Give the backbone structure.
Amino acid sequence: MTTINPIETRPLKPLFLSYLFPAMVGMLLMSVNILVDGIFVSHGVGPTALAGVNIAVPIFSILLSISLWIGMGGATLYSISLGEGNKKRAHQIFTLAFTAMIVVVLTLILFLLLNLKEITYIFGASDATYPYVQEYLHVILIFGVFYTIENLLSIFIRNDGNPKLAMMGLITTSVLNIILNYIFIFVFNYGVTGCALATALSTIIGMSVLCLHFFRKQSELRFVRNFFSISDLKKIFSIGLPSFIVEASVAVIVILYNVTFLHYLGSNGVTAYAMVNYIHTVLLTVFLGIGMALQPLVSYHHGARLVTRLTALLKIGTATALIFGLTTAIIAMLFPSQLMALFGDSTFEIRNLASQGFVHFAIGYVFLGINMVYAEFFQSIEKIRLATSIMLLRSIILFIPTLVLLPKILGPQAIWWTFPVAEGITALLIFIFMKRKSHTILI
């Protein structure tokens, strides 16, 4: 006798909301964690140490992007297998994704540790900052595998029907990171090493909280012996690619914006953009959270061939993204100077530049959420070319020429329009595509 999974019968709106809040909080906390390290180091160690930690952040982000790549690819296949009723394959996919990530991450960490000085100098380290970079990264890299395991487990646990525990694990990590940072830096005076230890220990404890899922009766996460499959491994890397592009493109976009602002508006422009980008980094994770909430549900329904509910989920996700996008844009237009005042002392010119810029920049959020939802949706139903195309369009293909042309044609203030124009054109192309192909896309 086969039992029907409650996911197949539960009303879709409350089902989606039960995944939405934990996913958004989880993604938000992941972005806050890195910022917390910078705040404590700047106040407790000094500006040179902060520069050293900031240089190390991209390497930290590489580990995150790998865990997202393999985690999202594996979890999508996992949920599809559960939807198909193939629990044996689901167990194999989980074991394969976990093992593949361990192998890739440990290989990368070993390479980085053996070539630490050369790599960090490429990332911008100097003789003054390198001692702090080395101090921070030695600890982070040694414990880095736990960070990636925690992220991978949180993704799989969300896909295994336990989004609240996935959120609780990340909350535990974030709260402990703040407490331990204070203790190690201000009480024990461990400096940058203390900051890294706080991140490492809080991650291990957060990961331990996630491991409680394995003792849950309904859990389908199991390690099995016969799991290796080249075709499944290729699928994991292929399906997870759009998630990797999202994370990797963030660094590219920031660099291109900085270069453009410096060219047209000098250091004031770069500082104004930095203020806007701090808010954007947090908001981006919120919009990513909408897609992350959609993914387990879409993948399961795709595997179960429940096309009507699948179409309804896409509509719910799109509506949610549009509501969040419009709300964000309206708040930015009404309270730009108040939002920029969050960053404390700055000159009137810089704050005014950032406030005016954010009013234009924030229009992009109306389209960002929609683009993220469709990319995540296509990724979740194994339409990888479509998902990858959306991510490349908004972050590279449309973004770069728009960034180059707009300020040349319309002047420096038009730099702020790059984000809404690139996102808006991407959303328009998705709309045209769905008008023509929506009847065949779910088959």
Notes: The chain has two domains: 32-228, 280-441. Residues 230-303 form the longest helix (74 residues).
